[in-house]
Amino acid sequence: MSETVSYYESPKEIEKKIWSLLTIAVKDRSSEFRTPVFICGNDEDLDGRVVVLRKADQQSSLIQYHSDIRSSKIERIRKNPNCSILFYGKDEKIQLRVKAKCEVNYNNDVTKESWKKTGHISRKCYLVTNGPGTVSDEPTSGLDNKFDNFNFTKEESEEGYKNFCVIQCKIKSIEWLYLAAKGHRRALLDLNESKKFTWLVP
Ligand SMILES: Cc1cc2nc3c(=O)[nH]c(=O)nc-3n(C[C@H](O)[C@H](O)[C@H](O)COP(=O)(O)O)c2cc1C
After folding, report:
1. Cα(132) to centroid(ligand 1), Å
2. What is the pTM of this model?
């Protein structure tokens, strides 16, 4: 089987492909790269969870997602902003292992802009009475009845803004792995100031 993809052995094309996957994922709900695993923590306790990619900007090497400010990962990020974000696309046969430094945005211009674009359905996540992870005596969505049944106006959904935050991840490096029948390829893109590309044995 021959590999015809332009990015098989071209550093420039690999970088182009990566950013294309990430930017498309922000808009395309069916993209395999839309829901990466975000991992953060410390030496003793690391934890990963699926998030939705909301922004990818090559110019500033930035990706971001939304969250509830009451989530326990916020405290973890504040203590240790270094994180890992893991993507895998089965159809593309590409794995991306991103290392980044995070910033929690709360009640600022970044959150205002993102909140404006957050629709009715997504806003529901931020309307839970107690924060995510709070212990409950019974099975629960955490929502009051009116929110649970989508029985709320856009104005009422504004209440969720107080729980809304945007995690911006400034990318330090991206490790790319491409699975190919004629030979896998792996490379490390260092996105720090002295940008560097290194081939690795897969
Ligand atoms: C498909 C999918 C998308 C999710 N998107 C997000 C997201 O964008 N932000 C987020 O904080 N949690 C998201 N979650 C929920 C998290 O995976 C996690 O359960 C939640 O954040 C609570 O855990 P944590 O407080 O430890 O992060 C998503 C889960 C799934 C399955």
Report:
1. 9
2. 0.96
